[in-house]
Every structure is written in C-alpha cells, then in structure tokens.
From TrEMBL:
Gene3D superfamilies: Tetratricopeptide repeat domain (1.25.40.10). Residues 30-63, 821-845 are annotated as: Disordered. InterPro entries: TPR-like_helical_dom_sf, TPR_rpt, Ycf3. TPR repeats lie at residues 53-86, 365-398, 399-432. This is Tetratricopeptide repeat protein. Keywords: Repeat, Signal, TPR repeat. It holds the Pfam family ANAPC3. Residues 1-29 form the signal peptide. It comes from Archangium minus. Residues 833-845 have a biased composition (Polar residues).
Amino acid sequence: MRRLSRPPVRRLVAALVVAHSLAGTATFAQYRPPPMTESQRLVREGESAQVDASAAATSGDKKRAETKYRKALELFEKALAAEPTSVPAAAGLGAVGLALQDYARVVERVAPVYAANRDSLDLAYPLGIALFKLKRYEEAVPVLQQVTVANQPEHLLVHYYLGNYYALIAMDGDATVAELQAYLAQRPERIANNDYQIHELLGRGHLLRNDPAAARLSFQRAQVGRAESVSIQMGLGAVLELEGKLAEAMALLEGLTRRFPQVPEVRERLGRLLLESKDLPRAEVQALALVKLGGTPPAHMLLGDVRMAQGRPAEAETEYRKVLEQAPGDVAAQIAVGMALQKQGRNEEAIAFLEGAVQSGADSLELWSTLGSVNRRAGRYARAVEVHRRVLEMAPKQALGYVLLGADHFATGQWDLTIDDYTNALKLEPEHADAKKWLARALAHRARDRAGNGRVDDAVRDLRRAFDLERSSAMARRLGAVLLQQGSHAEARKVMEQGVQMPETTWREHLLLGYARLGAGAPKEALESFEKAGQMAPDVASLADVSAGSALAEMELGQVDAALKRLSEPGTSKRAIEVTRANLSRAHLRRAFARLEAGDGAGARQDVESAERAGVGGNSSSLGRLAVFAKALAQAEEGRFGDASAGLKRALSPTPEWARPNTRQLADAFVLYRRDQLPQARKALTAATKRPIPEQAQWTASFNSALHRREAERAYASGNMKAAEKAFKAALALSPDSAALQHNLACVAYRGKKAADAVSIWRKLEGTVPQATLNLGIDAQERRREMGEAVDAYRRYLAAGGPRAAAVREWKERLQMLYGLSDPANPAPTSNPEPSSATASDNTP
C-alpha cells in the first residue's frame, strides 16, 4: 500500500538544492565552544578545588579543607595574574580569601576589579566583608549597603554585619532594627539556634531608639538561647536605666558581679552608674576591683574619674597617665589629663599638654574643644576663641563650635556676640539644651545692662525671649522686675502668676507678684502675695522687705494705721529702708486726708507735720506741695481761714501734676463754706464746675448737698421755713437716701403745721436717727400731752446714746416726778441699740 505521508524523492531533492543555492557552500560539523583562555582554565580548576575544600570542611576534615582552599587561592591568583580584570577570578579569590580569613589579600586583589565593575555583587560581597573585618568601616559600609539592597538569600550575613555596625559603632537604632529584622526574615530554619545573638543586637537597637519595652522583649528572647549570658543581662540592666529605675539596674549589676566576678564590663558599668549617682565610696570599690582584675585602660579611666569626683585631681592624673601608657592615642584620657592638671591649678601645664596632644596629630573634636575650654578657664580668652573657631571649622553642621564660642564670649561679658553664637547654635540644633540655657542667661545679662542704661523697652524684649527659652521662676522674676520698671503692671502680674507656679519658687517671686498686683490695682491680692512671701522668707532682712510691701498694700486698702506701724519699724534691710523713706510721708498724708474726710482737722494737721518730718522733698516738690495742700485743708477745719487760704495759694500755684485744673477753685469754695460764706462758696463751686470732670461728680454733688443743707439749717434757725424747705429738698434730691435730710425736712414740715406727716417720717427713721426718737418724745409731751409716751421716747433716746443725753435725762426724770411715772421692771430693748452713723442737725420742733 502506498504511504502518502512520505514526500516524493524529487521534491526532497529539489528542496535540498534550493537550500544549497540559498546557503552557499557549507561544511556540516558538530558545535564546540571556543577554547578557554588560560585565566578561564585556572578559574575552573580553582572552583573545583573550592568545591573540594567546602566538602572537606563540611565533613570536619579541617586540614584537608585548608589545603584545598589554599590550592584554590593559588589558582585564582594565577588566573588574576593572567587576566587582571577577570571578575570570576576576583570573585573566586574573594570567596576563598574569606574562608581563609585572609582579609588583607581579598581587599588588595578584589578592590581594583570592583572599581571597574561596581555593579557586580559577586565582588561587592567579599570585598565589603573583608573591609568590615579589617575595621575599615567607612569603606566597608557603602559596599555592604549595595549588597543588602539586592536582598539575596546567599548574602544573608551582610544584614548581620550591618546590624552590628549600626548597633555598636554608628549607634543608629532604626537602621539596626531594619537590618536585623531583614536577617531574621531570610535566615534558614537550620541556623535558628543562633538567633539569640540577633535578638541581643536587636535589643541594643531598641535601646538606641529609646524603646525600653521592645528592648526588654528582645533581650528576653535572647535569654532563651543564653540564659546566663552576661551581655544579655547587662542589656536588661540598660533597659532598667532607660526606664529610670537606676536602683534596680544597679542591683542587677551587683548580682552579676557576684556571679561573674571576673567579667570587667559588669564592674565598669556598675562603677559608672554609682559615679553618676554620686555614691563615691561604692564607685571606688568597683573601680579598685576593676584595676585589680587587669589594670586595663577602662579600669584606670574609671578610677581616675572617681578620684576627680572625690576632689583628688593629682591621683586622678596618675590614673589617666596609666591609660595613656597603654593607649597613647586615647583622646578621652588626654582630655582627662588636661582637666586634672587644670583642677590642680596647673593651667599652663594643662594647656601645654593639650597643645602637644593636638600637635601630635590627635585631630579630635573633643580634644580641640577641651583645649579651648581650658584656655578660657585660664583666662586666655583670645586663644580660646581661636581654638573654638577651629572646632567650628571641623564640624560646621554641628552646634558644638557655636556653643563653645558662646561660652568664651559669655566669660568676657560680650553679650551681643554671645547671643549671636547661641542663636546660630540653635539654628543648627533647635533643641540643644545648653544653647537654650545659656542664650537665655546671656539675654538676661544684656537686659540688666540695658535696663541700667535706661533702655527698658529693649530689656523687656530680651527678657521675653529669655523667658520663652527658660521657663523658670528665676527668669520670670527677672522679666517681672523689668516689666514693673517699664510700668507694665498687668503683664508683670501675668508673668509672675506663672512664675510662682514653677518649681524652685522662692519668697522673692511672691514678693514681686505682690508689687505687680499692687501696681495693677489689686491691693487685696497683693497683700495675699506678700503674706505668702512672708511665710517663705528665710531671715529677718527678708521679712523686713516683705513687711514694706505689705505696708503699701495696706495703705491702698485704707488700713493706714497698720501701714504706718509697719513703715515706722523698717528693720535693717536696705531695701525695706528705701521703701520706708519713699512711702512713710505718703502714708502720713494718706491718713491726713482720711482724717479730713472725717472732719478731724487737728489729727490731719498732726499727720501732715509727721509727713514733713519724714521728708517730703521740700515745699516746691510735688509731694511737698501736697503736704501744704493737706495742711491748708486741716487749718480750714480748725477755723484758721487766713492760713488756709495762703497755704492753698502756695500749694496750687502753679497747678501741680496731682491736681486738676479746677482744684484751686474747689478748695477756695470749701474754705468759704467752712467760713459760713455760703453765697460766695456756691459762686466758687459753680465756676469750678462749668467744665465738669467726671471723677469729681460724686464729690461736687456731696458739696452741693452740704451747701443746700447748711443754707436750710440757717433758714430753719431764722424761722424761714419756706427757704429751709426749698434748700432741704434740693439737698435731698442730690442725696435721696439720706436719713438725716429726711429727718430735717420732717422738722420743717412739723414747724409748718404738718405734724402728722412729720411724726410719720420720724417713726420710720426711729432707730436710724436718734433725733427722730427725741422729736417723737417732744411731740408726745408738748403737742399731744401724752407724758407716758414722752418718757418712753426719752428712754429710747438715752438707750441709743443720743448727743443731748444730759438734757433729755433731766426732762425724763422731771416728767416722771411730776406725773408719778416709773421705769418698767423689764424695759423693752430699743430697735437699734448701737449708736447710729446717721447725722442730722439737732433740730427739734
């Protein structure tokens, strides 16, 4: 049967012919790769030897493994010699060199090839690890970071190395945690038993991140693998330190010293904590024990620091020099020697030592910083500034240089430069605590100088900024004081009310708050502040200062007698004596005016004379003229009208600052009133009030009322009831609540044949105005002939202590004798047994 699937021969031949014609002549042969170069052949042999070495290492045959590795290393080196740019040869050499721990050879051979092939992870991996092992971290880290970005499982160890670097050298907590978590995510389960190392490093990373809870968890996980690991236990101690539990941390470390007495790191950390806690005896015990363990540089360094803290700088110097014998380039020890020399007063030796250290090549920020500071403490300010400018050049992006320059300029009182320095420091590091602290204090010093030179507004600006930087009671006091000097009492009060709420508040802050409240018009609250200051005052002089302030508050509250008692006994405090000198005469004048208001002219004059003895600055001074004014008013009260008028003229010509434009006219009107020249007084009062002054409205109303009343009394006495009624009504219109005026107007009504109306008003006023009770008795006796009611009224009047008691008692007794009336066994109490403060003219029907 014919098979249709097989193509005809002619067609196949034709196809071959076509193909031949298209391809031209061709030789058919089997494919073979091109022959290897000598370098490639050596690389292949090296890789074979490397495989054999790995197998031997896995089987535990260390000797055979090392022999094979060295054979592989030799082959890879020959390959590189044959082809210096060969990546496979360099990669093989790097891998074998790491296995043999020949890190220097790896760096030497691989680095040139890596420089031409920076994208090769096969080169970056061994080169980065070799550099890391050689502690060339600045070169190693960028190379390892290139490898870790690829995140390949075969490069797992790179995460571990970088985690170590970030945790122990760079002190970067976030980077530490990121690398080690990446390691844990990739590591094979078969090596999980070594995770305790990773968790311990993670704990350190979390400590750097100030996360004690996460750090504790990591160290506890590390404990699962190594329960008695000293380093893990110390990590837990560091967690306690971060949590502020120093006592517990030290207890943990003390336990470790008993369980592991030969581990120096434990004693060193415990000694440091005891030193920080100022427990110098126990710190010394640990330092001596540490030296006994081996006399290492850290041991002598700790003992030296203990000796410095004990105030034994010579012995500290000895210990620090022992550190330098073992580690000549130790910067911390060099700095410590310089400080120890300075503490001994050997400033020139300290400077020479530190200068020698920097000239020998110890180009350390800390060393240069200390050299400048020692020069400053020795009084060599120019050299200090020069050295610290070098620090600024070395670290231009750090605040350190500006902070040190600020300290130099602060020491010489160059406040503008100091402020500029610390301001620049805060621009670089806004939260720098020392820069904030000393900037605030420099501003406070400049403010003091400015305030002393009369630039109070500038001083206020400086201190506002200082208070923003340093929220302390002392800074509040400085700002409050200059605000008071500026006259900004309300703001000073606000600042000081914050200041007394802050820690370390003293009696001084409460004293200043008292003055601020006093200036802001709150004398009651001011007195409370002064009382609080008095409770906190540490000595007699302080109490005198507080008492002077209390006197001013009492004076404003009208407690002038109490104020004068305080001011008359100022004590020995200079400030209290100054306050007394400035205010004793004012207090006497304040009481003089109070006595004038009560009509006590003689007492007022005595106070004026006391004020003059205390000192009023002469009759031409503002206070002196006020004293003359008060004395003139007192003389008017005493009836010495000529002297009063002359005194008023001296006091008010020209018009002093404390007077108003119409004070002279008002005073003249008052003298005329006291002279009973009522028309002239009214004329003067009218002229004085043509242009009313709001603050005088109440006084002028009272004066008008007094004039009307006096006119009414004169009209009543002369029998002119119509004029008396008109005047009393005018007075009552100005003082509608006056019981005395209501009583007197009722007397006018009684004389005007309106007895019933008068009696009705007197009954309402009985108990308030004694004369009302007297007039009820007179009406009962003379108009209604009710002798019993009259006697009862007279009895009530006498019980109330009326001014005409002697005459009324005689009337009462005469009526009782004539009409046989006796006093009741239990007389009813009067409705107002206390003497009345109401005053009425002694008008009777």
